Amino acid sequence: MIKRALPPLVALLAAVAAAPSQAQGFALEGAIVDSRSAQSLGVVSERGDISALFRAQKAVTFGILRSAGISLDQLPPDVRARIERFQTTNVEAFRAYSQGLDLKDQGRFVEAKEQFRRAAELDPGFALAAAERQAMPDANLGSGVTVRAVIAAAAGNALDRGKASFAIDVNRALAAIAAGQSVVAISTPAPDVSALSAVNGYSVNQPGSTFLPNLAVGLSYSFTDPVAGTLSIASTNEWRADKYSAGSGASAGQLNSVGTSSDFYAQRLGASTAATGRALLSDGATTAYWGTWLSGANASASVTVGGAAVVAPALGNVDYVMADATRQMPTIGTATFTPLGGPMSNVAGTIAVDFVNRGVQLNNLGFDIGGLSFTALNGSATYDANTASGKFNGYYSSGVCNLCPGFLPTLSVFGGNFVGNNASGLIFSTILLTGAGQVSGVHLFGRP
To answer: Which residue has the higher pLDDT, 174 or 376?
Structure first.
């Protein structure tokens, strides 16, 4: 494996070719490092007149291959032909193309597309420029929105699975977005029900179990990360009785903590609880509750992920919805769920569930979060038959946001868990990309 210790070759060439003061000459240099051993494999360099720039670029490429122990004579003829072929010999077209690559790396896809268009116009035979132009989206994802979206989704998926760490390849995510692909999905093999245990916070939770009822909890909160900026997180999960603490009697409906100190751990601590509400589900036996932990400088809630605790002022308020998790999902029939209550406001629309095919369909959802109004949200998902409370996650297929500078519904995520006997309700969570950041929320839906 070859690891480039310096910026990619194209970026080096762009820096040289774009400098007017160096228009008559160039200097190229590249270092090759074996990533397995951190051993330097050598340095290749070329200097000369600008007219020889493209021949020098090929010489540097061949030098890198030789330093890595790759013989040109051993390359298949078609591969060697592609390496030797000049994509362009027009310096101005190459400069525009290089600037486009730099803008693309920044998530400034609109400006990048214009540079690729200009490169293809200056050299109609510049196929790479034409291909890059075709691949560019028509919306910018600057200011770290894309990175924050990937981080938020990865964190949500990790927490949903009871994990404290997650891996993100931001470069591949950006490349996938540039190609119009989805980047937020993190797929894993379906778990074996028999293996669900206290290790990951789940239990099989079947009727007749001696365990106390598992609790389904939806959480939504924002915090400031020194690297990624402000992140908004929302997730739902099912927790065993030894993984949560909730009030009873006069304090019924008050969530005190969820998770474990060695993993994901959300605690109310000294924070007060505001606007707590409740709703009796249609099974007549299950009451769902919701509220908010108010985080202040002197009485903050705490959220711990991967051993690092976040408190005010970095952590804002924490919204929650909770109810007894469904112990066994229905296998026949359908149901339509409508808003019952929760931290989000002006919630409308329905969620249709097909219990035979495990399908979840969002139909024209609408709600307000943080002064933004979202409408016409649609999407579909399949709930997990291996989780007793039928966990689901998905992406919106369409939607509208009032006052959002660049709402991205197809990169915004939703999820949920079912609650109550016979899945009489569900806790819904969502993270939405507004074009200027993220917002998140949780809410309760019920069926007749």
So the answer is: 376
With CA atoms as reference, report the closest residue to 112 among 61, 174, 173. Answer: 174
CB atoms within 10 A of CB 224: 13
Q: Is the pLDDT of residue 181 over 80?
A: no
Per-residue buried b or exposed e for 24-41, using 16+ beta carbons within 10 Å of the residue's own CB? eebebebbbbeeeeeeeb
Q: Domain map of the chain by residue range?
A: 2-135, 145-446
Q: Return the number of other C-beta atoms located less than 10 Å from residue 65's C-beta.
A: 18
What is d(CA 98, CA 93) in angstroms, rounded to the nearest whole number?
Answer: 9
The pLDDT tens digits for 407-430 are: 999 989 999 999 999 999 999 999
122 CA to centre of own chain:
38
- Both structure tokens of 382: 């399949």
Residue 280's beta-bridge partner residues? 287
Judging by DSSP bridges, how do beta strands 413-419 and 359-369 pair with one another?
unpaired
**DSSP string of 2-52, one letter each residue:** EEESSS-HHHHHHHHHT-GGGTTEEEEEEEEEETTTTEEEEEEEEEEEGGG
Question: In this structure, are residues 303 and 446 in contact, taking their beta carbons and an 8 Å threshold?
Answer: no
How much is the pTM? 0.58
Q: Which of 57-71, 223-237, 274-288, 369-383 has the lowest mean pLDDT?
A: 57-71
